[in-house]
Description:
Layout: H1 13-33, H2 40-56, E1 79-80, E2 90-91, H3 94-108, E3 115-121, E4 124-131, E5 134-140, E6 146-147, E7 157-158, E8 170-177, H4 180-194, H5 201-210, E9 220-228, H6 236-243, H7 246-255, E10 269-271, H8 274-287, E11 295-302, H9 305-311, E12 321-325, E13 330-342, E14 348-359, E15 362-368, H10 372-378, E16 381-382, E17 385-389, E18 397-401, E19 411-412, E20 426-427, E21 434-435, H11 443-451, H12 463-471, H13 486-490, H14 497-510, H15 515-522, H16 529-539, H17 542-547, H18 550-553, H19 563-573, H20 575-584, E22 625-629, H21 641-650, E23 654-656, E24 665-668, H22 674-681, E25 685-687, H23 689-696
Parallel strand pairs: 2-12, 7-9, 22-23, 22-24, 24-25
Antiparallel strand pairs: 1-6, 3-10, 3-11, 4-5, 4-8, 8-9, 11-12, 13-14, 13-17, 14-15, 16-19, 17-18, 20-21
Helix pairs in contact: 1-2, 1-5, 11-12, 11-15, 15-16
The chain binds 2-(butylsulfanyl)adenosine.
Residues 86-88, 118, 120-121, 125, 141, 175, 225, 299, 318, 321, 323 line the site of 2-(butylsulfanyl)adenosine.
Amino acid sequence: MTEEPPIAVLTDDTAYAEAVQLAVDSAAAYYADGTSTLDDDAYDRLARGIQAYEEAHPEAVLATSPTGKVAGGAVVGDVPHTVPMLSLDNVFGAEQLADWATSLERRLGRPVAAWSVEPKLDGLAISARYRHGRLTQLVTRGDGTAGEDVSHAIGTIVGLPARLAEPVTIELRGEVLMTTEQFEVACLKRQAHDGTTFANPRSAAAGTLRAQDRPYVCELTFFGYGALPYPDDASEQAASLRELPHSEIMTWVAAQGVQTTAATPVAGIVAETLVQVQERIEQIATVRPELPFNIDGIVIKCDLAADQSQAGFGSRAPRWAIAYKLPATEKITKLIGVEWNTGRTGIIAPRAVLEPVELDGSIVTYATLHNASDIARRGLMLGDSVTVYKAGDVIPRVEAPVVHLRTGDERPIEIPQVCPSCGDGIDSSQERWRCVRGRSCRAIASITYATGRDQLDIEGLATSRIEQMLDAGLISDFADLFYLTREQVLGLERMGETSTNNLLAAIERTKAQPLSRVFCALGVRGTGRSMSRRIARHFGSMDAIRAADAEAIQAVEGIGPEKAPVVVAELVELAPLIDKLVAAGVTMTEPGWRPPAVPGIDVDPDAQTAPEAGGTSELPLAGMSVVVTGSMSGALEALTRNQMNELIERAGGKSSSSVSKKTSLLVAGENAGSKRAKAESLDVRIVGPEEFADLVGALL
Ligand code: IVH
C-alpha cells in the first residue's frame, strides 16, 4: 500500500557526518516546534541511509547518530521519565508488516495471541502524571529519557481531565495534537495577533504546548494510547493493570474520563489474524482524509501483556509494536511561480506552480494559494521551499514557507495591479479580490456556464456562437439570449434559417427549466449544482430567495454564517439580470414545491421536497445518502452526473460526491474505481445502474 522511500546513498565518512548532522538538526527542529527542514519521507530516507552506512562501517559510527537512540534528541528537558518514551520502528506495506510479524512470532516461539490496531496520531507524545486522580505534571518526550515540563498547558488540552474518575496514581501516555478545527481557530488567533499563521497542525501543537507567555491561548487535544503504573507502585491495582491486555487498558483509560480514539471512526480494535489487521489498516487509510485530525500511519501492537513482556524492547523501540506508515500528505517542494486567473464571477485567484512532488499517490504541480492576503500572511516568496498538503480528494494547498531553507535568492511574489483577464481595475476591498467589472469581465465564461448542460442546457449554443453574439453587441449576459430577435440571429455569420429556428426554439424551451437550474445558471459565488438545488427546494421561488436575509439563507443545509451574506450580496448584484429573466418569462419556481409546514408541528423538514408523494419517507431513497460512480448504462445511460443527482433528490435521497461511512448506497457503473473500493471497505451497499433504475422506478 505504501511505498518505502528510497535510501539516501552515503559514499564516505564526510557524507555520513553531514547526513548525521542534518538528521540531528532536523529532528531537533521537529521536536522543538514541529518545523523541520525535511519532510517525513526525506527524513526516513536519510535515517535509513545513515543506518546502511553504519552497518557497512561500524568503526565510523558517530556518537551523535540518530540511529542508536530514540528519535528526536534535541530538546532535552530536565524531568526524567519513569520509563523511557521510545519511538516505533516503521514498516511500509503489507509485505514488510508480515515479515515483522513473522520475526516477532519466531522470537516468541508461538503465534501472537491478538493484535491491537490503532491510528498513529500525528502530534507529540506526552506523559501525563496523575497522583491520587489529580493531574499534577505534563512532560514532553524530550530525548526519550528526560523531557520538558509543560504543566502550564494543563487546562488547555481537551480530553485530558484535571481529575480522573478514580483517585488513582498513574502515568498516562498519549498524543497531543490540534484538530483541524482547533488549528483553524489557532491560525486566526495568531493572525489577529501578529499577522502570521502556523505552518501545520503538528507544528502549531508543538509550539502551543511549549509556549508560556503567549497573549492568546490555543486549545489542544489529547488522545491517550497507554497507561503505566509507576515502577515503584506495588498496589494491587497497579499489578492488575500491568497484567491487562492493551485493549482493556484503553477501556480503563476511557472510563477514567480520558479521551481515547474509541469514539472516532478510527477506534482501536483487536484483530486475531494478520489478514484482519490488514483489513483494518485499509479501513483506516480509507477514512483518513475525512478525519478531523491528522494521522500518519497505523500502530500495530501485541495486545496481551504476556506477549509484550516476552517480546521486550530494542534500543530505541519496543519489539511488540510497529508503525505502518501511510503515504505522506505533506511534503516540502519549491514554489516556482504564481499564476493569477480571473474566474467567471470575476474573482482573481492566485495559484502556486510547484516543482512536481508526489503526494498521497498523485503528482502535484499546482496548489491553491487562496488569495493575495493569504500570500502576505504566509510570507511566501518565489523560490521558497514550501510545505504542501494534500489528502484524498482535497485540492492541494501551500501551507507555509520553510524559512530556514532560504538561500537569499528568493524574490517577492508579484501582486497584480490590474485584472489579469481584462486589464481593468481590481476591487481589493474584500479578502477575495475581484475585477471591477465583476461577472462581465469574463462574460464568455459566465454565459457558457449558464447555458451549459447542467444549468439551462441550451442545445446547440456553442461558446464560439456566444462569443460571436458578444462581439456583435447582441448580448452582454445570458438573460439577453431570451430577447434575441430572429433577424438578429439570422444576421450572424454562419447562421441559416434552420439553425436560427433551432436555436431560438431551444432558447424558448429553456424558459421551462426549474428554478434549481435557473438559480444555478446565475453562478452565485459559493453555490454549485447541488447547493442550487437545495436552495431552490428550500425556498420554492425566486421571490422567496430574494426576500431571504442572511439568517434565512443559513437555514439551507451547507450554508454557514460565512457563505450566507455572500449569497445575499450576490443576489443584490444579480438583481438586474434576474429581473430581465423574470420579464422574459423564465420559470422562477421549483415544480412540485409545497410551502413548509409551521415549524414545530409534526413536519419532517424535507417533506416539502417531495412533490409526487406525501413526504420524503414514502420515496424510494428517503433519508439515503447516495453516491454515483463509473459510467451509467441502460435507462440511465444518457443522464449526466447532474441529472443523476437530480434524480436521486427527486427520489428523496441526498446526492454526494464522496463515499464515507455515512453513505447509504453507491451506484457503481462500469469502470468504477476508488469509490467502489472505498464503499466495499466500509461495507456500503453497492448497486449497478439497472438495479438503481428499478429502485427509482417511475421517478426516472
Ligand atoms: S505507542 C513504546 N501508539 O508515535 C510505544 N504511539 O514513533 C510507543 N504515536 O512517540 C508509543 N500514535 O508519539 C503509540 N497509537 C499510538 C500512537 C503513537 C502516535 C506516536 C508517539 C510515539 C511515536 C513513535
